[in-house]
Amino acid sequence: MTSILTEARRHRPWRRTATDAVLVISAMLAGASSGSAQTPVGNRRPLIQTATTDDPRLVPVRSDGASRSVTILVGGLVFDAQLARTTPGTVVIEGKRISAIWPAGRRDWPADARVIDVGGKTVLPGLIDLHVHLTYPDSDTPIDRQASEGDGVLRGVRNLRWMLEAGITSVRDLNGVSDAPYVLADWSAANRIPAPRVFTAGHIITGTGGHATERPVSPSHGPDFAWERDGADAWRSAVRETFKRGASVIKVASHFSPEEIAAAVDEAHRLGLKVTCDCETVYTAIAVDAGVDIIEHPLPRTDETIRAMAKHRTAAVPTLQVYQNVLDRAGGFYGSTSRRFTLTAQADFDVFRKMKAAGIVMGVGTDTIGDANQLIPNVYLAELQWFIRGGYSAAEALRAATLTNARILDMDDRLGSISSGKLADIVVVDGRPDLDIEALRRVDKVFRDGILLVDGGQILVPRHQARPLTKAPPFDTVR
Prior knowledge:
Layout: H1 2-10, H2 18-34, E1 70-80, E2 85-94, E3 97-103, E4 114-117, E5 121-125, E6 127-132, H3 149-165, E7 168-173, H4 180-189, E8 197-200, E9 204-206, E10 226-228, H5 232-245, E11 250-253, H6 258-270, E12 275-278, H7 281-290, E13 294-296, H8 303-312, E14 315-317, H9 320-330, H10 345-357, H11 378-389, H12 394-409, E15 426-430, E16 443-448, E17 451-455, E18 458-459
Parallel strand pairs: 1-4, 1-5, 6-7, 7-8, 9-10, 9-11, 11-12, 12-13, 13-14
Antiparallel strand pairs: 1-2, 2-3, 5-15, 15-16, 16-17, 17-18
Helix pairs in contact: 1-2, 3-4, 5-6, 7-8, 9-10, 11-12
């Protein structure tokens, strides 16, 4: 039985809920009893027999019953994220999903379809940013408002608008002020605001005095942003609490004990969520051994740890440009006890290249925080340029920004490529970003859930449609 449990854990990225663990073990037991060594295949999604929320929690919901209007994008090039190439084609959107990709020249669409000519443009999946901080205070935030949840929500709405205009249709928010990230995730999911999808961790979980909690304590580095917890049970409880509040990913940070990180990973995987770690040196090795799914940043680690990441299929989100920005401004990374090392741009890039050589899956994230949000889309394009400098072609960098990012999000069955059945999160760019990544500066249109939210590079805000009164005033009888 011990070996069966070990094998079930090995399949944890695809078998993460308690129910799925039972199915894995049952299948293995059945195989053992029949003398078969067959390994279970597939993932948990085919087990879902009803509509669910479009996030890793997969909460069952009623089918929306919305009308299925048809939009046709005709005359452009379509980027195939799987093959990292473009070909002429027509994209058919029905309701909130992509219903088909037709070869160029086919024109037998419904008479009532909305037809948009995208000639001379490239149609690609919505870009994804795997590391943002939507609600952090910036230099315009008064000190007494830095921990304000309301201010955080308003900053987040503004920052999300800028991201959407840049063609970013999904973001992974890796902590913010109080419950503001959860509020933004809920409002975005319901299309109450024009915004990318928000997949949030809510709060960082760390040990006492760990990352984002060290002295001197400030409003943006305190309990409203990060939770200090000590002991395995406390870490397990913190995972449950963020899940309860609406987290769709769990973020942990050094420092921690092996028991603490193992408890957090175990609990998150039982709940069906991935775990990402902001950690360095020995803590990265401990996290990888505990089974975390993703390591953030290019922070120092040994060659042995990089080999362990490759062996365990631990993904990475390098965020090279943000550290280059810090080094350019400050000359180093100072004043933090949670990172006991000296950073250099070359050392960061060396870690990136070693991970690429080891075959580690790497996604695109910017660690955009505070005033850095005003640099959108420059920060995103700079990160893609780091990938290209590190050996990716422009098309491969685009694939990392779309399909690879969707896989790291655990959302590649719904996002990340122009594919039939996936959600219609689509960007139309004037030019060929698969050949020249700088073409992403020329975003023309952005769809999310099949809704045109950006046209001509500008946010569209539809006119409010007033609901009728339940009963009209009886003016004809009033004297």
